[in-house]
Amino acid sequence: MPPRLVENYNGDDSDSDVDIFGDFDAGVKGKGKGKGKAIDRGKKDKGKGKAKEQSYAWEASYTRSWDTVQEDEAGSLQGAVEDLIARGRRRRLLAPAAAIRRAIIRHLILLLDLSSAMMDRDMRPTRFDLMLQYAREFVTEWFDQNPLGQIGVVGMRAGIGERMGEMSGNPQEVLKAISERHKLEPTGEPSLQNAIEMARASMSHLPTHSSREIIIIFGSLTTCDPGNIHDTLAECVKDRIRVSVVALAAEMKICRELCDKTGGQFGVALNEGHFKDLLFELIPPPAQRALSTGPNARGGATAPADLMMMGFPTRLPDTSPPSLCVCHSQLKSEGFLCPRCGAKVCDVPTDCDICGLMIVSSPHLARSYHHLFPVKTYQAVRSLDDTPNASATCHACARPFKDAPQPMAGATGEGMSPLGRYRCPDCQNDFCAECDVFVHDVVHCCPGCGK
Amino acid sequence: MDAASHLGVVVDLSPTHWYLSSTRTQHNARPLSLKSFLSHLLVFLNSHIACKDENTLAVFGVLPGRSIMLYSSTSESSGNPLDKADANTYRPFKVLDATVMRTIAEHVENLGPSDLEIPGELVGALTKSLCHINRITTTSSAHANGQTASIDPRILILSVSPDQSLSYIPIMNSIFSAQKLRVTIDVCKVYGSESVFLQQAAHLTGGSYLHIDRADALLQYLTMSFLPPPGIRQLLSVPTQDKIDFRAACFCHKRIVDIGFVCSVCLSIFCQPVPVCSTCRTKFPIKTLQRLNAARPAVTTPTAAATPYIRSPASLPSSNAIKVGAVNGSQAAARNGLR
């Protein structure tokens, strides 16, 4: 069965100008700006209608890519290329900014296929090595974006599910669980049911307001189960576990059904780059709307919410006089003081051993706030007629603006400004295209109005 | 160190607090006026551009209600025709001094009496400085294609005014973007009480936070701790941070709290139990509210609210005993209340 085409994925063999965007995207990602991009992409994928309209790459009509590029007076292509790059950045910003409820305290079990099918060499060097490499990057990035989340690792090999790493909120521990290659050597047949049951059991104790997810990286085309896997599927639906599968070989009916019924995402990786894209799409917190409108919603009820009492500790420096910690009873200098009872704990987040208060570091919480208060989209300025005394430089980086409108290649619109000016609707300051992207993707705070 | 470094300086120019800093009181035995502060600062800025030819500099001013760029060594128009060549001064020094002083004078002239009450726009200056660094790093890497593009950016905040709890979220967002850009944020608190948010900024970005005791020796502090780029600082012993307060500002009253009530859906912080989350409109179960309300009085007693600054490990055992007792009592009360 052919894999579903994912929007804005560029195959290596496409020769259209869209490649410029591909290269640019890769550049952005390399600088660690992947966050905003991944979220936008997630948003786009929510609107599945768009993806359906698009035909497969091999069915698309012949595009005359050279017509969209125009030389300027000096015969140089640089202006046109810059324009295309700016257009690509801008397009990502114009993704719908509707309010979506997202899960923030996430619990995830990473299910790794360790069957002999993973030794296949269709992905270089092997599926197994590539999976480990991407899984490590995935864990790092996941904790960056979901600082309050926890990850456990389960492997499936030789017909059983094997616990590789306990649920942990510490990225180092999770990385350690998947760092030793020789302990994870693939062998035998995989068993989806056994592994999912194990993952389900390790998430059964979790509080009701946390989200539970399973991400399966599946390379095999068979599964060797002791019972009826549809029972397991029904249990997952009942426990509100969201199962997502990244398949490396081909689509299997049961995998697709697991994802569809539990509200997860399913994808088949076409090549190495696409594998990474599929995996990294699962990093941004999932919208909870998808769960409640899905077929498994119980009377439209969303996950029950709760108010939690949390304390923000004071960190003691290494130079403070040593004292005993309450968690290990060891003599230490550094540590965190519980704001309620003043007990010293070694690490946060944790529950205070003395008074039971949940102690978190406030920067941990603050990492997610930009999801809550996004910066308003800047309006593209089309002409300066209605603003007589417009500033000559970008309000953020003080770069001078272009004086005359730049002739636009191709169709105007798409939210591009011919003057390269983008105006904040609140503070009415003008920003250049680069700062526009930077403010919305990274800073999440308008330099003009400070919100 | 081979890499050139870029320094973004954010100068707090709040008139009210500079007035307080320049008056001699019991608590302020060594007053520092804005004038002498600026002369210290200019020497420091000059020494930064003198350290290495490729070093770049941008200076941002924080004024009531707005933020301005005072000087940027990368903008071409900075060379002003009004200053004649002076045989006794290195030209970049002169341009820098003249531009900074002139821009400050222009903007301070425009301040009206109503501006005295408006808090300074620290966030604006900080984000502008980040945008500027973003522009420099992206364009230089495009030009030099990675061979000499390793500009080492950092930001120094010279602060005199206290925390604006209103700007908690924007400041945290700026800190995380600084982390992403690998920008070190150094904080020098020239006057006033400790700043919780700036402490966190320095801690999270690996910079140093310095609350100076002798304001008249400002230049000494600046050159000894903030002139060397982060690469060299590993070899020097730069003053480390004392305690770091991880307190946050609540969303409802913008108070700075050490124990907050957090919505499990959106992680908004409230200083008291609320029935409905103001951010995501989630309704909380009434049982939780009762339980938390009953537990609260023990938390917000005046002693607990006032202690965070003076809390020290030595005084712990006694306060432990008292507070734990109070907490247990309140939990028992909560259980009774639920029945």
From TrEMBL, chain A:
Where is it chiefly localized?
Answer: nucleus
- Can you supply a Gene Ontology BP term from the record? DNA-templated transcription
SMART domains, alphabetized: C1_4, VWA
**Keywords annotated in UniProt:** DNA damage, DNA repair, Metal-binding, Nucleus, Transcription, Transcription regulation, Zinc, Zinc-finger
Q: Where is this region: Disordered?
A: 24-52
From the UniProt annotation, give the residues forming the signal peptide.
Answer: none
Q: Name one Pfam family in it.
A: Ssl1
Zinc finger annotations (C4-type) as residue ranges: 338-355
- Known PROSITE patterns for this protein? VWFA, ZINC_FINGER_C2H2_1
The record's Gene Ontology cellular component field reads: transcription factor TFIIH core complex; transcription factor TFIIH holo complex
Q: Which CDD domains match?
A: vWA_transcription_factor_IIH_type (cd01453)
Compartments reported by the entry: Nucleus
**Ranges of biased composition (kind: Basic and acidic residues):** 37-52
The record places domain VWFA at 107-258
Task: Drop me one GO molecular function for this one.
Answer: zinc ion binding
SUPFAM superfamilies given in the database record: Cysteine-rich domain, vWA-like
Function of the protein: Component of the general transcription and DNA repair factor IIH (TFIIH) core complex, which is involved in general and transcription-coupled nucleotide excision repair (NER) of damaged DNA and, when complexed to TFIIK, in RNA transcription by RNA polymerase II.
Can you tell me which family this protein belongs to?
Answer: Belongs to the GTF2H2 family.
User: What is this protein's record name?
Assistant: General transcription and DNA repair factor IIH
Q: Organism source for this protein?
A: Daedalea quercina L-15889
Automatic annotation (TrEMBL), chain B:
**Is the keyword Hydrolase in the record?**
no
Q: Which domain of life is it from?
A: Eukaryota
Question: What are the GO MF terms of this UniProt record?
Answer: zinc ion binding
**Keyword tags:** DNA damage, DNA repair, Metal-binding, Nucleus, Transcription, Transcription regulation, Zinc, Zinc-finger
Chief subcellular location equals nucleus
Q: Which Pfam families match?
A: Tfb4
GO BP term, pick one: regulation of DNA-templated transcription
Localization recorded for this chain is:
Nucleus
InterPro entries named among the record's database cross-references = TFIIH_Tfb4/GTF2H3, vWFA_dom_sf
The entry's cellular-component GO terms read: transcription factor TFIIH core complex; transcription factor TFIIH holo complex
Q: Is Chaperone among this UniProt entry's keywords? A: no
Belongs to which family?
Answer: Belongs to the TFB4 family.
How this chain assembles, per its entry, is: Component of the 7-subunit TFIIH core complex composed of XPB/SSL2, XPD/RAD3, SSL1, TFB1, TFB2, TFB4 and TFB5, which is active in NER. The core complex associates with the 3-subunit CTD-kinase module TFIIK composed of CCL1, KIN28 and TFB3 to form the 10-subunit holoenzyme (holo-TFIIH) active in transcription.
Protein function:
Component of the general transcription and DNA repair factor IIH (TFIIH) core complex, which is involved in general and transcription-coupled nucleotide excision repair (NER) of damaged DNA and, when complexed to TFIIK, in RNA transcription by RNA polymerase II. In NER, TFIIH acts by opening DNA around the lesion to allow the excision of the damaged oligonucleotide and its replacement by a new DNA fragment. In transcription, TFIIH has an essential role in transcription initiation.
* Name listed for the protein in its UniProt record: General transcription and DNA repair factor IIH subunit TFB4
Species this chain originates from: Daedalea quercina L-15889
